[in-house]
Amino acid sequence: xxxxxxxxxxxxTGSKTLVETGASAADARFLVDCxxxxxPREIRARNWEPFPIDPTRLSAVxxxxxxxxxxxxxxxxxxxxxxxxxxxxPNTAELVPIILRDSAKLQEEDTAFARKKGFSRHxxxxxxxxxxxxxxxxxxxxxxxxxxxxxxxxxxxxxxxxGGHILGSSIVTITDGGSGKTVVFSGDLGRGNxxxxxxxxxxxxxxxxxVESTYGNREHEDVEAELDQMAAAxxxxxxxxxxxxxxAFAVDRTEVLLRALRTLQDQQRIPVAPIHVDxxxxxxxxxxxxxxxxxxDPEINSATVAEGPDAIDLPNTHEAxxxxxxxxxxxxxxxxxxxxxxxxxxxxxTHHLKALLPDRDNTVLLVGFQAVGTPGRMLRxxxxxxxxxxxxxxxxxxIVEIEAFSVHADASELVHWLMxxxxxxxxxxxxxxxxxxxxxxxxRIRAAWDVAVIVPQPGExxxx
Length: 464
Ligand SMILES: [Zn+2]
Prior knowledge:
Elements: E1 2-5, E2 17-20, E3 29-32, H1 41-44, E4 60-62, H2 68-71, H3 74-79, E5 86-88, H4 90-117, H5 131-138, E6 141-143, E7 150-153, E8 156-162, E9 170-176, E10 182-185, E11 208-212, H6 223-239, E12 243-247, H7 253-266, E13 275-278, H8 280-295, H9 302-307, E14 317-319, H10 323-328, E15 335-339, H11 348-356, E16 363-366, H12 375-380, E17 385-388, E18 391-394, E19 398-401, H13 411-419, E20 427-431, H14 435-448, E21 452-454, E22 461-463
Parallel strand pairs: 3-4, 4-5, 5-6, 10-11, 11-20, 12-15, 12-16, 13-14, 13-15, 16-19, 20-21
Antiparallel strand pairs: 1-2, 1-22, 2-3, 7-8, 8-9, 9-10, 17-18
Helix pairs in contact: 4-5, 4-8
The structure holds zinc ion.
């Protein structure tokens, strides 16, 4: 079996691994994940490069989860001729349509905006794909329950297990009947203490494991101390009449945040102020989470099932569904705005940042991983001006980073998960991380476990 790391090698986005079972044209070929490259222009440009293999030759795609950097390229693949099944867990199949429709719409809107304002480097900018391509991709989704075998190609058996990163996220196990070799993909791996989800299951016995390394060089801080810091930042901002802007991934991060805000509010650690969930996508995602909590879905942890939908459904939450409602929030005042995207690189939050960053009374709370080159990372790194829609705005608002909300395992948790495997694999591939993070994790694994540990180069092909 051969693996080619088309994306998420040397970076955290664009997850795509090509799996092939042999060298001849008749052999199996399919993808694990089909993600969009996100972040700075030179990384996003990779979305526009010709796909390294003719998409019509792929028999299937397996999606580990619904985040855009794992499923967001699918409509482009479909536009270029792919029409096979897209296997994923049932909850992923509910969330992917929300993400893809929004992504297509955003690409169309951003293109139209760039045309109107003329700040694109292209004379006639075109979207990467449109809503039609997204709908065709959605029609290919084939939900499979955890632990149920399916066949992404002739002679290949696969199954999914609970990954605990977001609702529906899966660990993917693939066995090639011909060679008898098995590969496990961690996907994005959750933490044992996700506030809503049950912990990830250990990896199946395998010849090779592909493990993510988003936080491969970091250990998460103590959650309580971080929540204190967050409560303090929110309290002082609201008291001075400022707005707290929280850029958040629409799916999962919003739910995790609302759960934390609920707790802080109930414990009177923050004043009660209007909380605006300003992302139609986040609101749609919330309905999927509420349904899973109500149904007592096995992915949801028992404490949350016992609490019921109130765990994430706050009485003082307001939904901003229309662009007008969204724009009205930019007049400032004591409120909390939760809006996508999580790294400030697109979506409604960019408009909020543009309007609210120049005012010292406001605060931007960064609650997720901020990739190099994104506005979120630049704010974290302390820039004095930020370029938004081609225009520089001064950064006078307070910038506070809270790591407590990470839904990625940290270095120790990743090593612990790997070593919970019954048998030692021959090779471990470390992907889905920035260079420093991947190589630090590789060193940690080498020190703990006598196996070959490889940080694959972008486009590298390896044999299992
Ligand atoms: Zn993810």
